Amino acid sequence: MNQLSPNGQRIASDLAQRHGFSIDAVTHMMFAVLNGNGGMAQFSHNEFGGYGQWMRGGMTMIGDMFNGYLKGRVDNLCFEIANILANQPGLLQSGSFQSQSQGGSSHQHQANGGMRGQSNLFVPDPEDNWWPSDLGSPSATGNQNNVKYAYFWNNRRLAVKSGGEVWVYDTQDHNIGGFSQQQGSNGSIAFSSQYGTVDLSRLPVVSRNGQPYVSQPQAPAYNAPAAYTPPPPSVQNSPIPGGVSTHDIVSALEKLGDLRSKGVLTDAEFATKKTELLSRL
């Protein structure tokens, strides 16, 4: 949902007139409260004192922290918007999981549970339902650092959209309660379950972009000539048959570890390839 419907625009205009904010500011806050599932909002607009947060029945923080008058107006606006959204059937959902970014300037994001129903306030965004349709309705959805999640508890599936690709994982017997992600484009992803914190790459991949996922075929094992005697492991950058050095083997192992952390390789595939490479030393 990325824009207001005609009825949503009418309500935004009415709120703006009564609360003394511009339509642009009110529209910004309507989406902020919507993204907070009607119970919280993270916003950034100059009319609200810059960056701020609101929580229903709790705290209200704005950039202009000593402006109590503005803080009260923001709280009243958010409270009324939350009530309006709550009266839209199926728009706000119960149930949630946590999605958190770690390192650098980490912050926490509360994600909605389930699919939002139709509302006459917002124009549906095709990206709202980006996962494969055969998975049905997710138990929870969320996003962090340009990575989207959709958890399907009944089907034991987890869909992750990253870099324009949609990966579906088998969650096995995990009851997923949240995600954490290292900041940066190459940040690893982990999830929390009844077994603690688990790296996403440990889950089997079911499909990629709607197509069944097939593991890459294993390369044939290298058979060293009978007359060849491998050098001691302590010798650095020593050559081995085929012009490959110890340094090259180490670099290949590092790249395999990176592929495993991204979920491209399973643990079993990583272990097989690692054994193969180490056999060349």
Keywords:
single chain; 281 residues; alpha+beta; 3 domains; six-stranded antiparallel beta sheet; five-stranded mixed beta sheet; 5 helices
Following the backbone from N to C, one meets helices and strands in this order, namely EHHEEEHEEEEEEEEEEEEEEHH
The counted number of beta strands is 18
Quaternary state of this entry equals single chain
How many DSSP helices? 5
Mean pLDDT: 78
Query: Which strand order spans the largest sheet, edge to edge or round the barrel?
Result: 8-9-10-11-15-16
The helix content, as a percent range, equals 25-40%
Report low-confidence residues grouped into runs of 5 or more: 101-116, 233-241
What is the beta-strand fraction? 25-35%
Number of domains: 3
Shape annotation:
elongated
Whole-number radius of gyration? 25 Å
| Amino- and carboxy-terminal Cα gap | 55 Å
- Would you tell me the structural class of the helices and strands? alpha+beta
Largest sheet, strands/sense/barrel: 6 strands, antiparallel
Structure description:
The model is unreliable at 101-116 and 233-241 (pLDDT under 50). Strands 8-9-10-11-15-16 form a 6-stranded antiparallel sheet, with no helix packed on it. The chain has helices at residues 6-19, 23-35, 68-86, 246-261, 267-278, and strands at residues 3-4, 40-45, 50-55, 60-61, 96-102, 108-112, 122-123, 140-144, 147-152, 157-162, 165-170, 178-182, 189-193, 196-199, 205-208, 211-212, 239-240, 244-245. With 281 residues, the chain is an alpha+beta fold.
